[in-house]
Amino acid sequence: QSALTQPPSASGSPGQSVTISCAGTSSDVGGYVYVSWYQQHPGKAPKLMIYEVSKRPPGVPDRFSGSKSGNTASLTVSGLQAEDEADYYCTSYAGSNNLGIFGGGTKLTVL
Amino acid sequence: QVQLVESGGGLVKPGGSLRLSCAASGFPFSGYYMSWIRQAPGMGLEWVSFISSVGTSMYYADSVKGRFTISRDNAKNSLYLQMNSLRAEDTAVYYCARDRGDVPGDYFDLWGQGTLVTVSS
């Protein structure tokens, strides 16, 4: 299994929207609804932001949204705020008897 | 308080062994899948191992298969990772995470603070 492909970096100004992509294959992202996204601030544990492509856990602002088209999933952060600056990772289920795979991570900078 | 607390990390020589523990509290531990996920310094996340709620199904990343063993003691609300034949490339922060949803790795909704394992001579 290869890691899912994410852009190394993304940026936007406060109030703007930014979208982070997560490219996989038909054996992982494209084949299942089990795509999730995590936010990680420096020195902290990851935090679940989106699960099953587009569902938001309680407490996650609705500025965060997820979607999928074909083999690529996306995380959109609207109305960027300073505290959104962090690393973001996607992960996808890759079939039975396999552990899922993570993306390489995207560093989001709020300009 | 719902939380996971890892322990057992430290400095170990190549070829050595270490056992990580993860203490769960505030939720019915025996009803949940659990996983270990690691992060090498400055790198991304890597799913290491998974165990089902009753401990009958386990999966491992190819990078640790045959060297690491995941286990759990539901009576003690604890998750473990026995790591043998450690290599420099196993150096990482190891997180335990509660694994939710329909399938292993569907999503991880609760994470511990992590424990650092350093493999170096």
What does it look like?
The complex is a heterodimer of chains A (111) and B (121). Chain A is an all-beta fold and 111 residues long. Chain A has no helices and nine strands. Chain B contains no helices and eleven strands. Chain B has strands at residues 3-7, 10-12, 18-25, 33-39, 45-51, 58-60, 68-73, 78-83, 92-100, 107-111, 115-119. In chain B, the strands form two sheets. In chain B, strands 2, 4, 5, 6, 9, 10 and 11 form a seven-stranded mixed beta sheet that branches. Chain B is globular, with a radius of gyration of 13 Å. Classes of the chains: A mainly beta (111), B mainly beta (121).
Brief characterization of the structure:
The complex is a heterodimer of chains A (111) and B (121). With 111 residues, chain A is mainly β.
* Overall geometric form of chain B: globular
Q: Radius of gyration of chain A from the CA trace?
A: 13 Å
Most extensive chain-chain interface = A-B, 25 and 25 residues
Percent of residues in β-strands of chain B: over 45%
Number of helices of chain A: 0
Helix content of chain A: under 10%
Q: Which geometry of chain A do the CA atoms define?
A: globular
How many β-strand runs of chain B? 11
Number of strands of chain A: 9
The ordered string of helix (H) and strand (E) elements of chain B is: EEEEEEEEEEE
| Poorly predicted regions of chain B | none
Low-confidence stretches of chain A: none
List the helices and strands and how they pair.
The complex is a heterodimer of chains A (111) and B (121).
Chain A (H helix, E strand, L loop, with lengths): L8 E4 L5 E6 L11 E6 L6 E4 L13 E6 L2 E6 L8 E7 L8 E2 L3 E5 L1
Parallel strand pairs in A: 1-9
Antiparallel strand pairs in A: 2-6, 3-4, 3-7, 5-6, 7-8, 7-9
Chain B lengths: L2 E5 L2 E3 L5 E8 L7 E7 L5 E7 L6 E3 L7 E6 L4 E6 L8 E9 L6 E5 L3 E5 L2
Parallel strand pairs in B: 2-11
Antiparallel strand pairs in B: 1-3, 3-8, 4-5, 4-9, 5-6, 7-8, 9-10, 9-11
